[in-house]
Design brief:
This protein is an alpha+beta fold. It is 30% helix and 32% strand. It has a domain at 15-143: Gcn5-related N-acetyltransferase (GNAT) (Aminopeptidase). Its EC number is 2.3.-.-.
């Protein structure tokens, strides 16, 4: 069964931060996104093999992937992308309707040439705001390999709490079984920290 694309129409796109513009991806973004994703230090941690441009274009054309990918632009240049997937929390069947659209998973990819400028943090903070304010989710989570220190450090800068450290639960394409980490933040925690 194919999952319907998520509805991000509650967000007024593009969203602007101090330095960035964030907007839903289009098929016109395939080449600049592929350029970033094929950089070895980026590709190393991605969940899909993006080494083939045509395969990447096929994946991006899938409605769910296109609807969960947001483009980060700095001065009209694509410098990376964000992942935002809104879904349902686990719930007992008699209250499952109240769990619909209550959780989001987020992620990020940034061109290494732009690292060290706080851009990923700026974009991810806005992603949290979008999830909590515009979309009204109650919980946001992010996952990574434990060896991907820049990613989990960003999660901690965002105020996310490490909820799981799983031993050798994640299979990496070249490194074998690695430890994985899950971080999360609740809407009320996010509001209290602001």
């Amino acid at each position: 069964m194919t999952q319907d694309p998520q509805d991000l129409s509650a967000v007024s796109w593009p969203v602007r931060t101090e330095r960035l513009s964030i907007r839903p991806a289009t098929l016109d973004d395939v080449d600049p996104l592929w350029r970033v994703r094929r950089i070895p230090s980026v590709f190393e941690w991605l969940g899909h093999d993006f080494s083939d441009r045509d395969r990447f274009a096929e994946l991006m054309a899938e409605p769910l992937r296109l609807s969960t990918t947001l483009v980060m632009e700095l001065d009209d240049e694509v410098i990376g992308d964000l992942y935002l997937h809104v879904g349902d929390a686990w719930a007992q069947s008699d209250v499952a309707d109240r769990a619909k659209g209550s959780v989001a998973e987020i992620g990020w990819v940034l061109d290494p040439a732009r690292e060290g400028q706080g851009l990923a943090t700026e974009a991810a903070r806005e992603l949290l705001r979008i999830a909590f304010e515009d979309l009204g989710v109650r919980r946001v989570k992010a996952l990574c390999f434990a060896d991907n220190a820049p990613s989990w450090r960003l999660m901690e800068r965002l105020g996310m709490r490490r909820e799981e450290y799983a031993v050798r639960d994640s299979l990496h394409r070249t490194k074998g079984w690695l430890d994985g980490m899950t971080y999360a933040l609740l809407a009320d925690e996010w509001r209290a920290a602001r």
